[in-house]
Amino acid sequence: MIKVVLQTVLVVVLLILLTLTALALAPSSWLANRAEDLASYFLDIDVTISKLDIAVFSATPGFHLRDLSIAGNADEATIELQTIDVAIDLRALITGTFQLDIIRLHDGQLSARIDQSGQGNWQYLLKRNTNPDKESHADEPSSDNEDSKAGHGMPAIPRIRQVDIRGINLQLDDRIRDNVVELNVEASGSTVLTDMATTLMVSGDVDGVDLALNAGMSSLAVLNSKSSKSNHETRSVAADIAINASLGSTALVVEGTINDIQTFQDPDIIVDLQAAQGLDDVQKLTMIPLPLLPPFAVSGDVLREGDEWILRRFSGSLGDSDIGGDLRFNPAVSPPRLYANLASEMLDLDDLAGLLGASPDTEETATESQLEASADAETQGGRLLPDTMLVLKPLTEIFDGALEYRAANVSSPLWPLEAFDVRIEINGQTAEMMINQLAFAGGTVNGGLSLTVVEETGKGEMNLQVKQIDLRTLLASAGLDTRSVGELGGEVKLWFTGNSVAQIAASADGGAYLLMNGGELDALLVELLGIDLSESLSLFMTPGSSTTAINCAFVDLQSRSGVVDIATLVLDTDDTVLLADGSVDLGAETLDVKVEPHPKDVSIMAAQTAVSIGGSFSDISILPGAALVSRAAAAAVLATIISPVAAIIPFIDAGSGTDSSYCSGMVTALDDAQ
C-alpha cells in the first residue's frame, strides 16, 4: 500500500516537473497565444499579448509579458502596456506567507472617457461572473474581516517587495466638465522593506493647465506593521510625508508626520498654499463656477479630531488684505461639513469684490481673470451694479456648515465701512447671513439676510437696523468736505430674487426709512439748494465757515420690482425746508428726482424753483446746473440713493416754509431707531 502511494506521489511530481519544464521551454509566441485565449474567454474582453516568458526554476518564479493590449468595444476604455513583470517570492511561500517579489509596469497608456451622464467607459473591466441562483441577503454576515471595517483602521495591503511603475500615460476625456486630462505617472516603493521609501510623481496638464505632483512618504510596510502591545497599550506606527504639487500658478506644499498611519490619525503636518491666480486654476480643473478672488496664500498646521480635519491658526493674505483663523472639515458625512472662523486685521474691501461679481481696482493686486472681467465691464456701457452671476448653487451643493468672518479695520475709497463681523450658515439650499455688527460711517448696521437657492436663482429677504450713522462721515465718502454734523437712524426691509447684484437690485420689493434729529448742515449747501444767490454768494467766499441747524430730517422710500419711490423726503433747517419727490430705477440704473426748497428767510435774489436730478448712475444731470456747485449737487444725489428701500410714515407737509410741526414727534422715532 505504501509502495502504491509513493509511486502515485512520484508520478504527480514528475507530471508537475514535466509541465513546468514544458512551460519553461515553450515558445514565447505559443504561450502568448494560449494566455490570450484564456484571458479573452474568462474575462469576455479582447486581450492581445505579443510575448510571454515564464520563469519556473527560480527562487522568484514569475512571468515576463510584452505588449499587452486590453480593449472592449470601439467606444470603451483601452489599456496598453509594453512591459509587465510579476514574480512570487517562493521562499516566503514555503513559510506560509504569500508575497510578491516584484511588480513592474513600464511604458503604457490608459485611455478612458466619462460621458455626459457621468458613466465611465471602463465598466466592462469591472464585470464579475455571478451565480443568478444565489441570492444575497442583507442579514448574512459580511466576509470582510474586522480590520477592514470603518473605525478599525486600514485593511491589510498585499505584500510586495518592490513596486516599479514608469512611463504610464493616463488620458481621460471628461465630457461632464468638458476637459481633457493627460498625465504621466511614475511610482516606486515596497510594502515589505521598511527602508524603501514610497514615491509618486505625476506630470501633465488639464485642458492646457500644467499639473505636477511629487509625493514621498515612509515605506508602505508601515501599513502592514502590527502595532506592538505591552500592558494592554497599543503603540501607533508613524509615517513621514512630503508633497509638492502645482496646478498652473497654484502651488501646494505638505510636510510632516502622521503619527498613526494605520488609522490616519494624529497628524503633525504643515500646509502651505500659494495661489497666484486665485481660484482660476481650481475652476479649470473642477469646472465648478467659483468666485473671482485675488491672489491668496495660506499657511498653517493640520490636525485631526475624529473624522474632522482641522487647519489650525493659519495665516495668510488675500489680495492686499491679511487673513487668518481656523478651518474644520468633515468629509465623512454627506454633504461634507465645513466650519471656518476667519479674521482680518486690515481688509481691503476691493479684495471681496469678486464675491459679489464686481470688478476689482485694476491698480491693486488682481488676477488675470479679474483684470479681464474689469475690462469687459468697461465696455458694457458704464453700468455700476455687477451683473456677473453669483456663485450660489455650487456652494450650497458642495458642503453644509458655517463661516464667521471679522475684519477689525476696513479700507475702501468708496464706502465708509470701518469694520464688520458677519456669520454665514449654509444648510442644503438655504444660506443665512447674520450681521453681528457692521461699523459704517461712525455708526452701526445690524440685521440678517436669508437666501434660498432654487435652480441657479436666489430668493431671499434682508432686514437691517441702522443706528447713529454720522452725517459728516457719510458726506465725506461722497467727496463732500463740509462742516455738516448729525446722526441718522432707521430700518431696512427687502425681498428679492436673482443670481447677480444687478438682478437682485432690479427685483427689490420692500422699503426703509431714515431719521435724523438735531445736528448741523453746511449753510452753503442749504442756500444753494434754496437758490438764494445773495446768501450763497457771501457763503461761497468763505466755504465751510458757517452752518445751519437741522431741526429734523426724514426719508421714506418704497420699492417695487427695483423701482424706488421717494414717498417722503424732508429736511428742516433754520433757513430752509427741503422736500424731494421722484424715483430711482435700480434695474435701469436711472433716477428722476426733484428737490424743492422752501426758504424761510426773505431775499430779493431767492428763486422758488425746484432742482431736477436725472440721468443714469454713471452720468447724473442736474438742472438748473448753472446755479449749483458740485458740492450741492452731490449732496442732493446722496439724499436720493443713500438707502433704496421703503417704510410707511405719514407724509410731512412743510411746503408752507414754516417750521415743521412734526419734528418734535420725530424725536421719539429717532431715539427708537438709534
Task: Please provide a written account of the structure.
With 674 residues, the chain is an alpha+beta fold. Among the domains are: 1-126 and 154-226, no CATH class; 508-673, no CATH class. The chain has a 29-stranded mixed sheet that branches. Strands 9-10 form a two-stranded antiparallel sheet. A hairpin with a 4-residue loop joins β5 and β6. α9 (523-529) runs antiparallel to α10 and α9 (523-529) packs across α11 (630-641). 28% of the residues are buried.
Keywords:
674 residues, alpha+beta, elongated
**SS-based structural class?**
alpha+beta
Number of helices: 12
Compute the gyration radius: what is it? 37 Å
Q: What separation lies between the terminal Cα atoms?
A: 111 Å
The number of distinct β-strands equals 33
Unreliable sequence segments = 128-153, 227-232, 530-545, 602-607, 625-674
Overall mean pLDDT stands at 75
Main β sheet profile = 29 strands, mixed
Give the strand content. 35-45%
What form results from the Cα inertia axes? elongated
Percentage of helical residues?
A: 10-25%
